[in-house]
Write a structure and sequence with these properties.
Layout: H1 5-14, E1 21-26, E2 29-34, E3 37-43, E4 46-49, H2 53-59, E5 64-65, E6 74-77, H3 84-97
Antiparallel strand pairs: 1-2, 2-3, 3-4, 4-6, 5-6
Helix pairs in contact: 2-3
Domain TfoX N-terminal: 14-96
Organism: Mucilaginibacter glaciei
Pfam family, one: TfoX_N
């Protein structure tokens, strides 16, 4: 089931983070990027954040699930999506740990 644009808009409106935050449509679902660094997926109207050590410590009682069949485990964020400060802080500390995007190969 593809994610609803209204849910994507809700998530994007909650993120208060320095840098450019964008959602890119991918196979009916969405990748969420900060300055070209993929940090989250929205699949089936659920928010999945890439796992990090600092993110795990910040969340505390982490719910983990794959965003889609065959995917790596991510942090499933359900109850705190509408808490803008909490979500923005989770993303801020997670981005520090996530690797920079690989340079794109020239064709």
């Amino acid at each position: 089931m593809a994610s609803d644009q209204n849910f994507v808009n809700l998530v994007m409106d909650q993120i208060k983070n320095p840098g450019e935050i964008i959602a890119k449509k991918m196979f009916g679902e969405y990748g969420i990027y900060a300055d070209e660094k993929l940090f989250a997926l929205i699949c089936d109207n659920k928010l999945f954040i890439k796992p990090t050590i600092a993110g795990r410590e910040f969340i505390g009682n982490v719910i983990e699930a794959p965003p889609y069949e065959g995917a790596k485990i991510s942090f499933l964020i359900e109850e705190k999506i509408e808490d803008s400060n909490w979500l923005s802080e989770l993303i801020r500390i997670s981005l520090k740990e996530l690797p920079a995007p690989k340079p794109k190969k020239k064709k």
